[in-house]
């Protein structure tokens, strides 16, 4: 993509309304724009990141054995009356009346609707397990939306659901999602740590939040220092195998949110304990028959008797992750995208547009990257070198290739790693080979 | 995918509420399910088709030079008051009050919001043309939603917008979309014909509906018989070139909706005139300064004077197309998917699950297709042959490979083309080569 033609409205000044770094940087980098309070339009650069995150989430849900569906955003209130949540859910639920005065709502989550789909079609334990997910916009009418996409009102969420014949089977589904979450965040270049969460009235230990570490994170967290060097689960994990040992090994390393951490009972020696901050980006949850019971989601068991199915739900905040990744990965100059979610891999800067040698080298590199299938954004604008380089740092592409008249006179361009700041001069051919590798 | 594990709730009986064939077949094929009146959940098979259509639309918008953004579903009423449409839009607009009693709405279209994005960032003619699109759910509160996804309340639409400095430039944008639409529908295996549409108070000939031919279509259309054999625009069309000749050549062939067709003035001889039915799947529209004027979307022109930008909008009904394609392509046995939008390319039927020879051949073919990157759905359920074959016809995958004990005894399987009905016996290896080619 040529920046001269790209709709990338970067801002020089920091917008006053942005309280946290990810919100500031997303606005400054021209990634998004507020449409109304807590509701955003995704501009081309931000949209690319959102789609990359969504695709990683999708790939790993598919790999774990879930099937993608798509439920609508607008739901009938009747289903929520069946589960009892229509009255319980407070003012965060956006309630709507249609033209026939029927009570509708903008879904904040989908347990009711997915349970309705399940009970309509599934009759026998032989059709289990049921494993469905979707990636859809949700709405929660926050009283005071802020922090940009980290706490917006309209947000994109992946929510998966499981239906099983008993607790043991439900636990297998839970473990699959547990492992899928480790892989999902690892693939995005994030250190995500599962921490026990309140599981509500059901009890048990079947509820975990996945929290990424970020010094600017929203809440304080504690973990054993082994977590910082721990490998995520292997890429070739077999989802058909018993995953309990993988989950147990993971949970054996201490990690706790501020709410759960008690210095008096913490099993980790002070010297081994890391105190930092984090951001919740996922939450997995087993809730038994909480919805299936009132909504009548039952199947015939192997003995012919009716069984109420055991359910779980598994959420990832897809749009929230865009902000979360920036919180976890930025510096004073701007965003530092992990390569798997970067909007483009390479930022190609022509420092002197109009100079024949610079233009021809930049154009040749651009064509080379495009032909090699490498996503490249070329700054071909007539603009001074300083703002061009600052702009490239701001938007945070993993690699910069800088073409300038002094280098070209010596037959070289500069390749910069945005994360480490390392710069290296090399021939255009060597730059091509380095980044196409 | 193995059908034994796939959530594909096909129905034997035709649901009573479905009045048209696409609605009946989508329900029977387990593609979707009504959530509430005019609002549907997409089940795995339907979701795959929806995504394929979306991706073709996206590819062709990108190729034509548009950039993808994503605007939210919920909009502030204030913007619509600026354009004057808040009061004009009738009861089809879903109006919402948030917890702070602010007037919001579920966007039925996005001219106001995109104009707001444009005016916030663009100041100079040098930043034009502006070419943005998004693919997002819309809501129109139809008084009597029916016909399934053909006339739903919540529906997925691609809407593109153009911003240009004058009429001549706006016309170039219009022509690009005109050509992109021809290519988009052609890639889906559809015959789509542009027909002049009412352009409202602005007048001129810059509004066309794209209508696909289907005997079960919603409206009567007339066209010259040359349309039936006409090629769409070539795949290597150069969007940077002058597209007016391509557009003119296309419009030189007569085609008109019932509304526009007048036998008294029709230039086509009766013998050359085709009278059939059609379904609107796209609409492109130039509307000048209708929104940019009241909303103040102006740029500095080349002479420094302020210019109000000329706009156009270009819609494709993405979810509507799922139904539209079925209306255009089905038979008594079920759906007949054009290959580019088929949920799977191959339906592999093991007629006798449990038979060692059948199982091993079917499994080997399945592994072969998966390894070759061919999307395959294998019916590995324990079920009688008749219902299995009927089910495969119903869901309409382009190719069926049938593995049965009689064929296997002779070393062959049967390959069936769903559209032509042609069947051919061949070795499993030959079947593999035929379909992987």
What does this structure look like?
2 copies of one chain form a homodimer. Chain A is an alpha+beta fold and 437 residues long. Chain A folds into 2 domains: 3-335, BirA Bifunctional Protein, domain 2, CATH 3.30.930.10; 344-436, Rossmann fold, CATH 3.40.50.800. Chain A is built from 14 helices and 23 strands. Chain A has helices at residues 21-28, 44-63, 77-83, 85-88, 111-121, 167-187, 226-229, 244-251, 292-295, 318-328, 356-371, 385-395, 405-409, 428-436; strands at residues 32-36, 39-42, 67-68, 74-76, 94-97, 103-106, 130-139, 154-164, 192-196, 207-213, 219-224, 255-257, 273-288, 298-300, 306-308, 310-317, 330-331, 334-335, 346-350, 376-379, 399-403, 413-417, 423-426. At the A-B interface, strand 1, strand 2, helix 2, strand 3 and strand 4 of A face strand 1, strand 2, helix 2, strand 3 and strand 4 of B.
List keywords for this structure.
BirA Bifunctional Protein, domain 2, alpha+beta, 9-stranded mixed sheet, 2 domains, 437 residues, 5-stranded mixed sheet, 23 strands, 14 helices, globular, homodimer, Rossmann fold
């Amino acid at each position: 993509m040529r920046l001269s033609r790209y709709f990338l409205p970067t801002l020089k000044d920091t917008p006053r309304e942005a309280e946290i770094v990810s919100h500031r940087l997303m606005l400054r980098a021209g990634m998004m724009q507020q449409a109304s309070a807590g509701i955003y339009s995704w501009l081309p650069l931000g949209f690319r990141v959102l789609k990359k995150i969504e695709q990683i989430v999708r790939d790993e849900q598919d790999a774990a054995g879930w099937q993608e569906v798509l439920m609508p955003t607008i739901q009938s209130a009747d289903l929520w009356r069946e589960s009892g949540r229509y009255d319980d859910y407070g003012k965060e639920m956006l309630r709507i009346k249609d033209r026939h005065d029927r009570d509708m709502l903008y879904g904040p989550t989908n347990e009711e609707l997915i349970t309705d789909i399940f009970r309509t079609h599934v009759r026998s334990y032989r059709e289990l397990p049921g494993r469905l997910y979707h990636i859809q916009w949700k709405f929660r009418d926050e009283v005071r939306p802020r922090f940009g996409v980290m706490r917006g009102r309209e947000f994109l969420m992946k929510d998966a659901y499981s239906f099983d014949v008993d607790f043991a089977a439900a636990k297998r589904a839970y473990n699959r999602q547990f492992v899928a979450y480790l892989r999902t965040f690892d693939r995005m270049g994030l250190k995500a740590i599962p921490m026990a969460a309140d599981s509500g009235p059901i009890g048990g230990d079947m509820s975990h939040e996945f929290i990424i570490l970020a010094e600017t994170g929203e809440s304080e967290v504690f973990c054993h220092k082994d977590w910082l060097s721990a490998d995520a689960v292997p890429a070739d994990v077999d989802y058909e195998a018993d995953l309990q040992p993988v989950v147990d090994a993971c949970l054996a390393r201490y990690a706790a949110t501020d709410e759960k951490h008690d210095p008096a009972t913490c099993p980790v020696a002070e010297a081994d304990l890391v105190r930092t901050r984090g951001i919740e980006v996922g939450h997995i949850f087993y809730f038994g028959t909480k919805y299936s019971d009132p909504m009548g989601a039952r199947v015939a068991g192997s003995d012919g008797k009716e069984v109420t199915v055991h359910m779980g739900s598994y959420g990832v905040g897809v749009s929230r992750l865009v902000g979360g990744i920036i919180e976890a990965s930025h510096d004073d100059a701007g965003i530092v995208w992990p390569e798997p979610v970067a909007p483009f891999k390479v930022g190609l800067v022509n420092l002197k547009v109009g100079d024949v040698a610079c233009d021809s080298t930049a154009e040749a590199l651009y064509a080379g990257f495009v032909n090699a299938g490498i996503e490249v954004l070329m700054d071909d604008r007539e603009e001074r070198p300083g703002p061009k380089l600052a702009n490239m740092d701001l938007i945070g592409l993993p690699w910069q290739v800088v073409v300038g008249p002094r280098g070209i006179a010596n037959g070289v361009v500069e390749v910069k790693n945005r994360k480490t700041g390392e710069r290296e001069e090399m021939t255009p051919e060597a730059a091509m080979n380095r980044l196409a590798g």
